[in-house]
Amino acid sequence: MLTLTPWRVDQAKILTRRELAVVLADLKRKAPRSPSTRLKLVVFRLACCCGLRASEIAGLCLDDVVVAGDRPHLRIRRHVAKGGRRRAVPLWWDEGTLSDLAAWRAERAAQGATQNALFVASRQSAAREKPLSRHTLRKRFLTACKVLGPERRRTLTIHHGRHTFISHALAGGRSLAEVREAAGHVSLLATSAYLHVAVEDGDCFGNLFQFA
User: Fold this and answer.
1) Domain total for the chain?
2) Calpha distance 48→62 (Å, rounded)
3) CATH number of the domain that 127 lies in?
4) What is the phi/psi pair of residue 167, to 5°?
5) What is this structure's pTM?
6) Can you give the residue range of the structural domain that contains 80?
7) Domain-located, residue 132
8) Are 24 and 76 in contact (CB under 8 A)?
9) How many helices (H) and strands (E) in the chain?
């Protein structure tokens, strides 16, 4: 009988708690005076703290970002999700992520964006109706990670944010079933590959995904 075993997650694909904290602190320090940095912060949050793929970030609309109620979440629609598997990604797992995405949603609404408008859009008014390309999103993500230094940044891609989200959610105490649903995995086997991945390092700044 053939026994399937999960593939092993490359540790280099996971941003540690310290790395996440360093990037977020740098972005949040610059964000109040820089619209470009606020966009990078949102892209980084969606990738590393929500586990969205680049195509899912590009296709997210304002109406898909539910910040009110007891269980705020992101709604990933079938036409943008891999394999057509729609899902809901909890925002109530992490207060910082919820706060930053809610602030960006309010900023987009103040710009006149409707509920069906893109959540992540160009800062140029003439291009706000067009989804950002994967190349642009990847570039924004890597620029956000600049504070980690050139050597570390060369090892990263925006998809590593998804690996980071899954690993930290499990390390933060979320169950396999919860994380499988949030990530949109077909089976628990894929999610279980991230169990026991080390997310701490020598200078731990605290946990993500322990919001009420």
Assistant:
1) 1
2) 19
3) 1.10.443.10
4) -65, -45
5) 0.91
6) 11-192
7) yes
8) no
9) 9, 3
